[in-house]
Design brief:
- The protein is globular, with a radius of gyration of 18 Å.
- The chain starts with about 25 loop residues before the first strand and ends with a helix.
- Strands 1-2-3-5-4-6-7-8-9 form a nine-stranded mixed β-sheet, with helices on both faces.
- A hairpin with a 5-residue loop joins strand 2 and strand 3.
- It contains eight helices and nine strands.
- It is an alpha/beta fold and about 270 residues long.
């Protein structure tokens, strides 16, 4: 049985937010999930996910000549009891639409990352995915102090069909923001072609042995291109893994694989 509680997420300015305030403009991970109607979740959970704190802000606003407003929001997930005294490394969860910010899989991974001691950022995309990714990136860099995020320690996470879009967006963003990522994590997707402006960001690729979408041919093509550009990468091959194993395969191996992904991201952001 699904319980649904309506929670209004207010939009606040990032100026002067205090994470130490108990009555600040935050909701917890537990409150976020109660507001969601989707019964799915990822199979790896930890108790601390209930207590992560989520802050919503507007990262892009524009008005067309006709007077139509375009507003795009982002959520920052902070570890439980984080008081804002330091700047946290952060992982950006790649988006290609306006609903991804509240999509169960994105929310679950963001909570898991925040419960592991780093910040996680989800966001809306309403124009082209590359343009919105770069707008988000520019906002995070400019407002890193107010957001309590270390803009020199950023990672990117993407899954499935988003992997190609994410890789292309990174390569485009590198033209204006070179070396902006400490690592990238791509799950069961088809990697995009590596161009000369991939800046050497280390990559973790995850493939499922039973996944018909991201077949081994894509892995071999990536390995060949990575060798040509001298890219540092790691590959996790989950032999019995299906597509979206993190959601639909509740096994010990799935849980270990998810934890390996989290550990990789945290370690690359912590050096």
């Amino acid at each position: 049985m699904t319980r649904t509680i309506s929670i209004v997420l207010l939009v606040f300015s990032t100026v002067g937010i205090s994470l130490a305030a108990a009555d600040g403009p935050f909701i917890t991970g537990a409150e976020k999930r109660l507001a969601m109607t989707d019964e799915h979740w990822i199979v790896r959970t930890v108790p601390e996910m209930d207590d992560v704190r989520i802050y919503r802000s507007v990262y892009h606003f524009e008005q067309s000549p006709s007077g139509t407003n375009l507003e795009m929001s982002m959520d920052v997930y902070y570890p439980p009891h984080f008081d804002g005294s330091t700047a946290l490394p952060a992982v950006i969860l790649f988006s290609d639409n306006a609903e991804m910010i509240d999509y169960f899989q994105t929310v679950a991974w963001a909570e898991l990352y925040a419960a592991s001691g780093i910040a996680a950022i989800t966001y809306q995309a309403k124009r082209t995915v590359s343009k919105d990714y770069e707008a988000l990136l520019a906002y995070v860099v400019e407002h890193s102090k107010e957001l309590h995020v270390n803009a020199n320690r950023l990672a990117l996470w993407a899954v499935s069909s988003l992997v190609q879009s994410a890789m292309n967006a990174v390569q485009q963003a590198n033209e204006n923001h070179p070396n902006h990522l400490s690592c990238a994590v791509f799950l069961y997707g088809r990697p995009a072609s590596l161009r000369t402006n991939w800046d050497g960001t280390p990559v973790l690729l995850v493939f499922g042995g039973r996944d018909d979408y991201a077949k081994s041919t894509y892995k071999r093509r990536f390995e060949s291109q990575a060798a040509e550009v001298g890219l540092t990468y790691e590959i996790i091959e989950y032999e019995d893994g299906d597509h979206a194993f993190d959601v639909f395969q509740d096994t010990e191996e799935s849980i270990r694989c998810i934890q390996r992904i989290v550990d990789y991201t945290v370690s690359k952001l912590s050096f």
